[in-house]
Automatic annotation (TrEMBL):
Its cofactor is FMN. Pathway: Pyrimidine metabolism; UMP biosynthesis via de novo pathway. Residues 76-90 have a biased composition (Low complexity). This is Dihydroorotate dehydrogenase catalytic domain-containing protein. It holds the Pfam family DHO_dh. The keyword Oxidoreductase applies. Residues 68-90 are annotated as: Disordered. Keywords: Flavoprotein, FMN, Oxidoreductase, Pyrimidine biosynthesis. One of its GO terms (cellular component) is cytoplasm. GO terms for molecular function: dihydroorotate dehydrogenase activity. One of its GO terms (biological process) is 'de novo' pyrimidine nucleobase biosynthetic process. Residues 124-350 form the Dihydroorotate dehydrogenase catalytic domain.
């Protein structure tokens, strides 16, 4: 029987975000001893066309007015000398996916872990979680690429996170809100895992698969998702769901920031300025999602082993402890990574 749990030790990592896009980003996340895994920004098989004029993000402090000429992107981060330097910070984004392809990311991983053959102290067993999206058929192809990479290097630890929850793609609303679509993705995952399971050198080298879920706000949504997870049973004797972990939660869509001129603070494809809310403002909802999913997953033998990676508004040790208290086995952050850089993981670990 394959090892079920994705091993993340220490149980702290980044979530898929713009600060996990480049080789330099990913290597810094991999090299720090304070992360137990690295999640790579969500990619497509053919890449995503990024446009700075409509794919944007901004840091803000809830309750404070944003000036009409407020900068966007990295320039919007509060400085260490500003009055808001110690305040919780949120983000709003109208971003899509990474401009790099999945194959390019597999090449980056090989470049990073290849250093161990040069006599360096680079760790070899820290997992890379490749966040991907696309159609169910494209997800099956993505798993094939990831499994082939894992098969070629038995020391490589790869996992696939299927992002079913980005709120910013006008032509593709989050599939995880629709049971029929969710079931189609889970079927594709099941077929893919069955195909490649017997080819891997060890149970640990079989790429684990998770799904990144959107924020849910009422009981029926949680029950729908858990019902799909229960029905998506593994073909392996003794195992439950085909899903090894869920990442919970993605940004809250349809969120809007108006600046002091009462105009949208960001641009997007439709011109509405609507985007995904993250950071401190999302934290209570993220905690509620993790707590609710843990309770429901534990009620059935087929889902009780599904791991939860808790995401949403964690930027210090207390926030991480709250996430673990409600059921997250590992805690990830994005907005805090953008604000503080890779040092945020030491900050969370040590309580600095």
């Amino acid at each position: 029987m394959a090892a079920k749990k994705l091993k993340i030790n220490p149980p702290l990592l980044n979530s898929a975000c713009p600060w996990a896009t480049t080789l330099e980003d990913i290597k810094a996340l991999y090299d720090t001893p304070y992360t137990g895994a690295v999640t790579i920004r969500t990619s497509l098989l053919e890449g995503f066309t990024h446009d700075d004029s409509v794919h944007q993000y901004i840091f803000f402090t809830p309750g404070k007015t944003i000036p009409g000429d407020a900068p966007k992107g990295e320039a919007s981060k509060p400085s260490s000398s500003s009055s808001s330097a110690s305040e919780p910070v949120s983000t709003l984004n109208t971003l899509g996916y990474s401009p790099l392809t999945l194959s390019e990311y597999l090449g980056i991983i090989n470049e990073i872990v290849g250093q161990r053959h040069l006599g360096t102290d680079t760790p070899t067993k820290k997992p890379f979680i490749l966040s991907v999206t696309g159609t169910p058929d494209e997800i099956a192809m993505a798993y094939a690429l990831i499994a082939n990479a894992a098969e070629m290097d038995e020391d490589l630890r790869l996992a696939m996170e299927v992002n079913l929850s980005c709120p910013n793609i006008a032509s593709a609303p989050p599939p995880a809100y629709d049971k029929k679509q969710l079931d189609e993705y889970l079927e594709a995952i099941s077929d893919s895992k069955s195909t490649y399971r017997g080819r891997m050198a060890t149970p640990d080298s079989v790429p684990k698969v998770g799904i990144k879920l959107p924020p849910y706000t009422y009981t029926g949504q949680f029950e729908m998702a858990v019902d799909s997870l229960r029905n998506a049973k593994s073909s392996e004797p003794g195992e439950g769901s085909v899903v090894d972990f869920i990442t919970c939660t993605n940004t809250l869509g349809n969120s809007l920031l108006l600046n002091s001129n009462l105009e949208p603070a960001l641009s997007n494809e439709s011109g509405s300025g609507l985007g995904g809310l993250a950071g401190a403002a999302l934290h209570p909802l993220a905690l509620g999602n993790v707590a609710t999913f843990r309770k429901l997953l534990d009620q059935d033998p087929s889902t009780k082993d599904i791991m939860i990676i808790g995401v949403g508004g964690v930027e210090d040790k207390n926030g991480a402890e709250r996430m673990r208290k409600v059921g997250a086995e590992a805690v990830a952050c994005a907005s805090a990574l953008g604000r503080y850089g890779v040092s945020v993981f030491e900050r969370i670990t040590k309580g600095a």
